[in-house]
Amino acid sequence: MFTTELPLPIIDAVVVRALEEDLGAGDVTTEACVPEDRHATANGVAKKDLVACGIPVAARVFATLDPSLRFTAKVEEGARVTSGTVLFTVEGRARSLLTGERVALNLLQRMSGVATATARYVAALPPGSKTRITDTRKTTPGLRLLERYAVRRGGGHNHRNDLGSAVLIKDNHIVAAGGVRAAIESARARAPHTSKIECEVDSLQQLEEALSAGADVVLLDNMDTPTVEEAVRVTRGRALLEASGGITLERIADLARAGVDAISVGALTHSTPASDISLDFTASSARASRPPAR
Q1: pLDDT in tens, 219-242
Q2: Could you tell me the pLDDT band of residue 294, with boundaries at 50, 70 and 90?
Q3: How many domains does the chain divide into?
């Protein structure tokens, strides 16, 4: 039994959808080539250095297909591993292993890729920095909870999860509302008292408007580092500051030193490549199942 921050109903809903997508017409190749009674052992192997994430999700794929399979994790979630490390072993019916291979690897590789990228951004923070690396809502449709879990496993933090979880006034809200102050004042009047008000600004003038209107958090959108430094000086702790837009790994240290509270990085989920992980059958493992003992 695996422990994970992710509730099993959430994992299972994703797994079932993915399996339905891959198995709409069955597994013609496996059913044609592999005897029904053939058993095998396979290892999930990291092909590059990575942060392992999604092993319990891979386990649920195989368990959903065939509860008789025996899945053994070989590393902890969030572990930094080197190329060649065995992440897990799964044993049982060879047909089940082959049929579940791609779905299990797709999810595991995606989650490990996000965790690995996040770890790089977190490592780029200066020693002792209190700045947070956070994700955004630029996630793969249907996989947000898995990807955000992967961000946490990589050492990062999560931004708002959905449109109902926080007030975040963006540039189009500002235009539609009639300006920064109008948007913030309307949000303050109508939002739940438990909600903080965050407002995006793209200039120091808009920053002053947001601060005077009482924004709790200000998102500094696509500002260069000198402007961010000036924004920190102007704000003087009156609001939390988040840097966002066009964030690269090379800018993390400078932005953190400038004094922002958070740096949100859409690239963690919208353009991070999947990690390279394979499922390798052991050469001597494939065998016919033994008849039951009498």
Answers
A1: 999 999 999 999 999 999 999 999
A2: very low
A3: 2
Provide the 10 A C-beta neighbour count for residue 81.
Answer: 20
Q: Please report, as a single letter, which amino acid is at residue 158.
A: N
* pTM assigned to the model: 0.93
Q: Which residues of 221-230 are buried (b: 16+ CB within 10 A; e: fewer)?
A: bebeeebbbe
| Closest listed residue to residue 115, CA positions, set 143, 148, 87 | 148
Same domain, 192 and 83: no
Using DSSP bridges, classify how beta strands 50-51 and 86-93 pair: parallel, antiparallel or unpaired. Answer: unpaired
Residue 170 lies in a domain: yes
Two tokens, residue 249: 């790994």
**Statement to judge: residues 61 and 173 lie in one domain:** no
Q: pLDDT, tens digit, for every residue of 95-132?
A: 999 999 999 999 999 999 999 999 999 999 999 999 99
User: Residue 135: which domain range?
Assistant: 127-270
Residue 104 CB partners (closer than 8 Å, separation 6+): 44, 57, 58, 61, 62, 279
List, by residue number, the catalytic residues.
102, 138, 170, 200, 221
**Alpha-helical runs (H) found in 142-223:** 144-153, 171-177, 180-190, 204-212
CATH number at residue 116: 3.90.1170.20
Within a domain: 59 = yes
Contact 134, 156 (CB under 8 A): yes
Distances (CA, A) of 219 to 33, 190, 191, 213, 228: 56, 21, 19, 14, 10
CB 145 within 8 A of CB 10: yes
Burial class (CB in 10 A: 0-12, 13-18, 19+), 28: exposed
Q: Does residue 149 lie within any of the structural domains?
A: yes
